[in-house]
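Revision sheet: structure tokens.
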Amino acid sequence: MRAFVVDAFTDRPFAGNPAAVCLGTGDDLWMQQMAAEFNLAETAFLAGGPAEYDLRWFTPEVEVDLCGHATLAAAHVLWETGESADVLRFRTRRPRPPRTPAPCWPRSGCPRTGRCTAVGTTSWSR
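Predicted:
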């Protein structure tokens, strides 16, 4: 297993929102203990590759269903280490949200309708 600490939402060290990213997983107890050892808001654990990864997030105390900044940090690590394809897909344990249209962020590649449908996986491209 390799581990990294990434400052998300910034372009300089020791700013932004830090998250630990682990390339590799273990059993639930081990991942929880690793997250407690890092003692950051979230630790992301990745398994799989090179285009599709299982992604789980842990705080120092519990597993959580979603963490945006740790997801961004995970994508950053995969691209910077050369572990990934140009397009990433993350599989998570998060329950699928209802399939209802949601507003899109600008330039998100949504259909011409300007609305998106949640599908339970997330794709990122460089």
